[in-house]
Design goal:
- The chain is α+β, with helices and mostly antiparallel strands.
- It contains five helices and nine strands.
Length: 156
């Protein structure tokens, strides 16, 4: 991923303009150019710049996306796990047990914390492990007891 990868210079309605996309992501099957603007924070000229960037990307065989905000499910997960971001004591070994249980494959959140004797406390450690990128949850869905939790396998 490259931040602010290039400057695109173009003319629109007789006016010289330029735009620097926020990111270029180098993928196995090509390049994805991305701009990020939180909803409602763009200017009128941004629309022209994004359209020009999309057109230039298509002309080179690249993909283009404009990201306007977070999916609501992602916000829920970030808020829940962010509350557990600081280092935690784990004298009862909840984290090791959650990781071991998750290693068997994707598991529903409620079933994963139920593998411990104190599920309410295990939830806090589960959210800590999500924040620390040891466990993962699908951010495209709301966070509930039915959410699938996945072990993140560390490559050696």
């Amino acid at each position: 991923m490259l931040s602010q990868p290039f400057t695109l210079r173009f003319t629109a309605a007789g006016r010289r303009m330029e735009h620097v996309p926020d990111f270029a992501v180098l993928l196995d099957d090509g390049v994805l150019v991305a701009d990020v603007r939180p909803g409602g924070r763009g200017k009128r000229t941004d629309v022209v710049q994004f359209a020009a960037t999309a057109r230039a990307a298509r002309a080179t065989g690249w993909s283009y996306v404009m990201v306007a905000g977070w999916h609501p499910g992602a916000v829920d997960v970030l808020e829940a796990s962010g509350r557990c971001r600081r280092p935690m004591q784990d004298p009862l070994g909840f984290q090791d047990r959650l990781l071991a249980a998750a290693s068997a494959g994707p598991t529903r959140l409620s079933a994963l914390v139920a593998t411990t004797e104190v599920p309410a406390m295990a939830r806090t450690h589960l959210f800590h492990l999500i924040w620390r990128r040891r466990l993962a949850v699908d951010l495209s869905h709301p966070l509930t007891d039915a959410s699938w939790i996945h072990l993140i396998r560390v490559r050696s």
